[in-house]
Amino acid sequence: MLQQRIEQHFIDSADLKYQAAQVLSKPIAAAVQAVLACVTNGGKVLACGNGGSAGDAQHFAAEFVGRFERERPELGAIALTTDSSILTAIANDYDFNAVFSRQVRALGQPGDVLLAISTSGNSANVLAAIEAAHEREMVVVGLSGRNGGKMAGALRDTDVHICVPHDRTARIQEVHLLVLHCICDAVDHQLLGEQDNNS
């Protein structure tokens, strides 16, 4: 029984990824273009989310500042989820909904990108960060799930919305990680060209 349950997780995850590939490839490509325009002009990506999405924000920043799969110059990215002093000061002195938006206003510049991750699309602090990014003339790449939640209404035509068509948080998060890997790979490909498999 247990093995069957485990196998079903793999099957469900693979099925969703297969189904989502066609739906999400166009917005992912648009996200790549937005991120590429940002970093080639000396900008940076600010990434935020809660819980597992905070982990995804940090994962993305690590692969940009470090590397994904190929050697390349460092790319600017900051996860807004990592500084416990900033997070607790803002949450204590203001409100937890302001933990990302105050950082976006402090660090964001026109031409930067906000990577806003919320599986439901309804995280109040992520929505506040989107609003702050718009004030700073930043492009937002929003990752959500289900029907996009409030994020769908908060994003502008110049932003990119990558909404995973599923209701289950774990499945949405699994696809979010694949989306982030697609963005990293495509940015590297655009910057570096085809990879020589002989090296």
Structure in words:
With 199 residues, the chain is of the alpha/beta class. Helix content is 55%, strand content 12%. The protein has 7 helices and 5 strands. Helix 2 packs parallel to helix 7 and helix 4 (101-107) runs parallel beside helix 5 (124-135).
Characteristic key phrases:
5-stranded parallel sheet, alpha/beta, 5 strands, 12% strand, single chain, 199 residues
Mean pLDDT: 96
Strands, count? 5
The helix content is 55-70%
Helix count from the secondary structure assignment: 7
Q: Stretches where pLDDT falls below 50 for ≥5 residues?
A: none
What kind of assembly state do the chains in view correspond to? single chain
Layout of SSEs?
Blueprint: H1 2-40, E1 45-48, H2 52-65, E2 77-79, H3 84-93, H4 101-107, E3 113-117, H5 124-135, E4 139-145, H6 151-154, E5 160-164, H7 169-192
Parallel strand pairs: 1-2, 1-3, 3-4, 4-5
Helix pairs in contact: 1-7, 2-7, 4-5
What is this entry, summarized?
By secondary structure, the chain is of the alpha/beta class. It has helices spanning 2-40, 52-65, 84-93, 101-107, 124-135, 151-154, 169-192; strands spanning 45-48, 77-79, 113-117, 139-145, 160-164. Helix 1 (2-40) packs parallel to helix 7 (169-192), helix 2 packs parallel to helix 7 (169-192) and helix 4 runs parallel beside helix 5.
